[in-house]
Amino acid sequence: MYLFFQGRKKRTAFVSDVLAHSEGLYRYALRLTRSPQEAEDLVQETLLKAYRSYGRTKKASNYRAWAYTILRNEFISRRRKIVREVPLAREPMVDELESPHDMSQPFSGEWRQHLSDEIVQALDQLGELHRSAILLCDVEGLTYEEISQVMQCPVGTVRSRIFHGRKQLRSLLQTYAKQFGMEDVHEAV
Q1: Pick from 154, 111, 121, 148: which is nearest to 133 by CA?
Q2: Are 74 and 2 within one domain?
Q3: Which residue would you say has higher pLDDT here, 187 or 80?
């Protein structure tokens, strides 16, 4: 009886601590994979791994950042496995393994519903690290500390990536902003 209660208590806590972030995890997974089916699989695997190790985390953990980190690491692991399984004419560079996104692909249909074509095009022109930091901050609402955990880099690096990414976006969207009467967009982005 005690073990059952303990399991139910764990499930209840897991739902409030981790599962509550599943929509944001799916959006991020969809951005990474560009496929709804792959994104669902990735989120499911992420939640399964999170549940299995949930009791071993610190009680005061930041579960949102922890779940995003698991998702990102699982995505990278899957890409590395694909690279190992598919014979290539050349060996992949380390940067290709660490930055698994295909820059030539536009945002998926779901993202397009929320962003104008001009903004999507501008985001696609950013480097992957800048774009990921901006998406995690401005779209998913993660704090700098959470993004630092997800991207596995210092908070200062996150701040720098967001600053420089926003600066590039501001420059790329200058013409678009003028169309809407926003002549000076220095503070807008």
Answers
A1: 148
A2: yes
A3: 80
